[in-house]
Amino acid sequence: MVQVLIIEDDARIRPLLMRSLDERGYAVASASTGLQGLQLAVDTKPDLVILDLGLPDIDGTQVLAMLRAVSDVPVIVASARDDDPSLVGCLDAGADDYVVKPYTTAQLEARIRAVMRRTAGGSAAGARRVLTLGDLSIDVASRQAALAGTTLDLSPKEFDLLRFLAERPDDVVTKRELLVEVWQQPWGGSDKTVDVHLSWLRRKLGESASEPRWLHTVRGVGVRLSDPSR
Q1: Which phi and psi angles does 183 have, rounded to 5°?
Q2: How many other C-beta atoms can be found within 10 angstroms of the C-beta atom of residue 227?
Q3: Per-residue pLDDT tens over the stretch 112-133
Q4: Contact between 76 and 98 (Cβ < 8 Å)
Q5: Cα separations (Å) of 43 from 56, 70, 149, 209?
Q6: CA–CA separation, 111 vs 27, rounded Å?
Q7: Strands (E), the chain
Q8: pLDDT in tens, 17-34
Q9: CB neighbours (10 Å) of residue 111?
Q10: Phi, psi at residue 13, to the nearest 5°?
Q11: I need a surface site. Which of 46, 109, 155, 159 has the fewest CB within 10 A?
């Protein structure tokens, strides 16, 4: 059972998250301040931490720095704004992923699964990390992807885009998030860049925007990668 520590001061959000994750099979502990959260992280050694950046006693970026000094536990940070500079700073300082408020439990759980897959793959000696979604397989180490056994001829950026989406199956990812994570452009960029690469990737997956199978556009929100066989 995955043990999750929630460091969140909002008295409305915290119990809802605890109950929702508990119902989904996680062991959950929580703290309402940064200092309490740090103490719990040291004492209970959770498998993953969900860290709110707006804490009442210590800024979330400082909590992350202090946590990283004593632990390499995976951390998902939560922010009210996806363009918050402190959010980018947290990613640079060692956070593994982030969610933007308001978010659903389903979105959070998808991030938890993705982070746990990444960290588990990196910690296993000699393990080869392969992401699998239906007939689609992505070998992270060799940077090769195959569909129904046929290798896809992907550019480096197309591979990065596909891998990022495959790590978040069924999760709607915004273009802003793709620009930050795939193109490393935290301060802005052109949505056209994302659109063009998605178009190229669609063609190589054997689909089109009008008849999607793998890549589904959610108008005004973003795109999600889903297994068409489900």
Answers
A1: -100, -5
A2: 14
A3: 888 887 766 544 433 446 889 9
A4: yes
A5: 21, 11, 46, 50
A6: 16
A7: 3-7, 27-31, 48-52, 75-79, 97-100, 130-133, 136-139, 144-147, 150-151, 215-218, 222-225
A8: 999 999 888 999 999 999
A9: 21
A10: -70, -45
A11: 155
**How many Cα atoms sit within 13 Å of 140 on the Cβ side?**
16
Q: If you average pLDDT over residues 208-213, what whole number do you get? A: 92
- Paired tokens of 36: 């309490």
**Per-residue tokens: 143:** 């940077």
d(CA 118, CA 112): 10
Q: DSSP letters of 179-207?
A: HHHTS--TT---HHHHHHHHHHHHHHTT-
Where does residue 156 rank: exposed (0-12), middle (13-18), buried (19+ CB within 10 A)? exposed
CA-to-CA separations, 102 to 2, 70, 107, 221, in angstroms, rounded: 23, 30, 10, 14
Backbone angles phi, psi at 72, to 5 degrees: -110, 25
0.85 cut: is pTM over it? Answer: no
173-204 burial, b at 16+ Cβ within 10 Å, e below that, comes to bbbbbbbbbbbeebeebeeebbeebbeebbee
Range in 48-57, 124-133, 142-151, 221-230 the model is least confident about: 124-133
Q: In the numeric block, which tokens belong to residue 218?
A: 């959610």
pLDDT tens, position by position, 144-164: 899 999 999 999 889 989 999
